[in-house]
Design goal:
about 100 residues, about 30% helix, globular, 4 helices, 2 domains, 4 strands, two-stranded parallel sheet
Length: about 100
């Protein structure tokens, strides 16, 4: 339904997790997104879970937690991260 309309799909966001979405559901969604020629953006939370090598091309790892002007340097200094995502805190100049 979305193939050809979007290139990227966010999967596993904390708001969905709080609503009861399970790891198994997230895994099925990631597979479905990839199978339909879109790129999944997988949110792994702040519990230090890391993706393991499955023989596939290394995914980009983007931190999606609270990022502000005051703490962005901490995240961009982490070698395994490819970037940071914009969050509500990013929109607030005070980071709250």
């Amino acid at each position: 339904m979305l193939a050809g309309l979007v290139d990227y799909v966010m999967v596993g966001h904390s708001e969905r997790r709080r609503a009861g979405e399970t790891d198994e559901q997230v895994a099925r969604k990631v597979a479905a997104v990839a199978a339909n020629a879109m790129t999944p953006i997988l949110f792994v939370g702040e519990d230090e879970q890391w993706l393991t090598d499955t023989g596939a091309q290394r995914p980009a790892i983007i931190y999606g937690g609270t990022v502000t002007a005051d703490n962005v340097g901490q995240f961009t200094a982490i070698d395994v991260l490819d970037g940071v995502g914009a969050t509500r805190a990013t929109l607030d100049e005070h980071g709250s």
